[in-house]
């Protein structure tokens, strides 16, 4: 009887050890694939919606046969208030279920000091220049991410106006 319990214990220990090794091996493979593509930094937010708070964010052409130099994005405001958006954006690539930042040329940050708005019930289009990226986009699933701010309460002075910030993602695909 003791031999049976000993056998079951050893067998269970071996199975658990092998399962742990496989899980670790999968994480190493995912990280290696991302590094091979020059993607070193995981995106902070892995799950982002395409729309929220009556704002829709999308890429006009969702599939490209080669690495595009420019993509057009659409921002649609279906609310009754204007929405401010940040001109800064990021491009992220999905590698085996994990989103990674695609680096800009020499860590260039796309930054402008204005905060444009999308008026109520308006849709606007904007071109995103991808030549600022360090490399061309290889085949895979990508997304453009951007932060939006919606007025939630407004007073006489702009200093007392309160905003709700949220980030949206517009997915697109690059194929051969």
UniProtKB/TrEMBL annotation:
UniProt KW keywords: Signal
Entry-linked InterPro entries: Big_14
Boundaries of every Bacterial Ig-like domain copy: 55-161
Signal sequence, renumbered to the chain: 1-19
PROSITE patterns, sorted: PROKAR_LIPOPROTEIN
A Pfam family that the UniProt record links to this protein: Big_14
Name by which UniProt lists this protein: Bacterial Ig-like domain-containing protein
Taxonomic lineage from the root: Bacteria, Bacillati, Bacillota, Bacilli, Bacillales
């Amino acid at each position: 009887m003791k031999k049976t319990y000993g056998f079951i214990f050893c067998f269970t220990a071996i199975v658990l050890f092998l399962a742990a090794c496989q899980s670790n091996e999968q994480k190493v493979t995912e990280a290696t694939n991302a590094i091979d593509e020059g993607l070193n930094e995981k995106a902070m937010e892995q799950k982002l919606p395409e729309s929220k708070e009556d704002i829709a964010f999308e890429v006009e052409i969702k599939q490209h046969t080669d690495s595009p130099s420019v993509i057009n994005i659409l921002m649609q405001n279906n609310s009754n208030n204007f929405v401010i958006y940040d001109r800064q954006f990021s491009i992220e690539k999905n590698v085996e279920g994990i989103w990674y930042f695609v680096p800009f040329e020499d860590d260039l940050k796309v930054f402008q000091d204005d905060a444009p708005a999308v008026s109520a019930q308006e849709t606007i289009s904007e071109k995103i220049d991808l030549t600022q990226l360090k490399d061309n986009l290889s085949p895979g699933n990508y997304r453009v991410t951007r932060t939006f701010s919606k007025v939630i309460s407004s007073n006489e002075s702009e200093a007392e106006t309160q905003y709700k910030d949220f980030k949206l993602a517009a997915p697109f695909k690059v194929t051969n």
